[in-house]
Amino acid sequence: MEATKGPSALMQSNFDLAEYDRIVSALYDAALDTKSWAPALEYLQHVFAANYVTLILRTPEQADTGLMIAVGDVEGGGRVTYMSYPQTTTPFVNQPADKVFTVEDLMTESEWRRSSYYQHWCAGHGVFHVMGVDIATPGAGKLRFRITRPENAPKFSAEDRARCEALLPHLRRALQIHNQLDRSESLGAMYAQAIGRLSIATIVLDESGKVLDQNLIAKEILATGDGLKVVGGRLEASYPSDNRELQRLVRNAFARYGTGNVAVAEAMSVARPSGLVSLGVVVEVVPSSEWAEGKGQPAAVVYIRDAAGKSLASSTVAKQLFNLTPAETALALELTNGLSLEEAAEALGIRRNTARAHLRSIFSKTGVRRQTELVRIMLNSVAALSKNG
User: Fold this and answer.
1) Burial class of residue 224, CB neighbours in 10 A (0-12, 13-18, 19+)
2) Which residues contact 250 (CB under 8 A, 6 or more apart)?
3) ∠ CA(216), CA(205), CA(244), 5° rounding?
4) Average pLDDT score over residue span 33-41
5) pLDDT classification of 34: cutoffs 50, 70, 90
6) pLDDT at 64
7) pTM for this model (two decimals)
8) Can you give the pLDDT at residue 12?
9) Are 295 and 306 within 8 A, CB to CB?
10) Residue 85's pLDDT is what?
11) Is the Cα torsion angle 144, 150, 151, 152 positive or negative in sign?
12) Is residue 85 within 8 Å of residue 60, measured between CB atoms?
């Protein structure tokens, strides 16, 4: 049976429009929040009087077991269960994209009962009637959608098929939105980790100076209260003169947003009561979408660099980059953190002559002649971008 398309599928589905609206809304809620897939799939389970509703997000490749989300009476599962999907030889492989099918479209009832897939994976879980569709999504390949019923339930009807067809465009779009948001969040997390590994603190402020977000490096700096602190939820500098300048930079950032000149950033040094080297601070505005009402609510981001902080460079990567021994790598990192050769030797528990021998070898391998050059190439290398280790 050829699947119906477009408005005719919705008309043949006999959907109550209020119910249809609730289902579609649930699908788009799920697109925006992974936790919302539970109510969305449970709603579909109710609509189709199914014992299971399953989304196969990733099919296995070689040793990979794949991934699927299942709603139903899954042993050990809750409202929604994320499960491995080990099957690569189901009777439902290689189906045309975006075409709803049932078991009856593919084989006779006796062939279905005799199939190893039914006997090993379906019969024991009360699965007999199956309706499904392989959904083509841009950038994510095919995603498999399956609805099942037990043998004592009615087989899937033409109306059920029409309902699935009517929901298919929204299910596809919801999955596409979910994939795009997931990719954006993953990239954002990756960039945030890279900033953190470079020992750069980031603090996001609203127009009043209230702290909206901060990374781990920023939390460590603020926890000391040495130069910068949070008072009443707002970012402030320790000394009044520095604080007035900091607040001016934040106000200027938002003022520039109002004029459209958002590319300009301003910088300042923030003195520290401890006497350590001043914190370097850069403030710039991060605009929101221009089409939002009132041009949205922009935010200011404050970048902070602690020149006295230790380098987070990975010893493993530094060793690989410059072909250093473990002892040479340890010495190079201590020197990068600002210690003198004598201080580094003491910190590592080695003799000064041993440290000097290591340093000569490091110079030879890295092609530098002075300790300052070594510190520069270590700080400018990719060692800090890798995870610590």
Assistant:
1) middle
2) 205, 209, 235, 283, 300, 302
3) 110
4) 84
5) confident
6) 52
7) 0.64
8) 76
9) no
10) 59
11) negative
12) yes
Q: How many CB atoms are located within 10 Å of the residue 168 CB?
A: 19
Q: 252: helix, coil or strand?
A: helix
| Distance of alpha carbon 333 from alpha carbon 381, whole angstroms | 12
Confidence of residue 353 (pLDDT cuts 50, 70, 90): very high
**Bridge partner residues of 204 (DSSP):** 213, 301
CA 22 distance to own-chain centroid? 28
The token pair at 183 is: 């990719």
Total Cβ atoms within 10 A of residue 207: 15
Query: For 247-262, what is each residue's pLDDT tens digit?
Result: 999 988 888 776 666 5
Do 85 and 56 contact (CB within 8 A), yes or no? yes
Specify the 3-state DSSP secondary structure of 195. helix
Dihedral sign from CA coordinates of 188, 192, 197, 200: positive
Rounded Cα distance between 327 and 358, Å, is 8
b vs e for 294-329, b when ≥16 Cβ sit within 10 Å of the residue's Cβ?
Answer: eeeebbbbbbbebeebebbbbbebbbebbebeebbb
The pLDDT of 379-383, averaged and rounded, is 72
> Helices (DSSP H) in 14-128: which residue ranges?
17-32, 37-47, 103-106, 109-114, 116-117
Instruction: Tell me which DSSP letter residue 121 carries.
Output: I
Is the separation of the CB atoms in 147 and 133 below 8 Å?
no
Phi–psi pair at 102, nearest 5 degrees = -125, 170
3-state helix, strand, coil in the chain (%, to 5): 50, 20, 35
Measured CA to CA, the distance from residue 171 to residue 174 in angstroms comes to: 5
Q: 266 exposed, middle or buried (CB, 10 Å; 0-12, 13-18, 19+)?
A: middle
Question: How many other C-beta atoms lie within 10 A of the C-beta of residue 81?
Answer: 16
Query: Where are any strands of DSSP class E within the chain?
Result: 52-58, 67-72, 81-83, 101-102, 129-137, 141-149, 200-205, 211-214, 228-231, 234-237, 266-270, 279-286, 299-305
* Distance of alpha carbon 69 from alpha carbon 85, whole angstroms: 9
Percentage of the chain exceeding pLDDT 90: 41
What is the spatial distance between Cα 24 and Cα 69, in angstroms, rounded to a whole number?
18
Count of beta carbons in the 10 Å neighbourhood of residue 209: 20
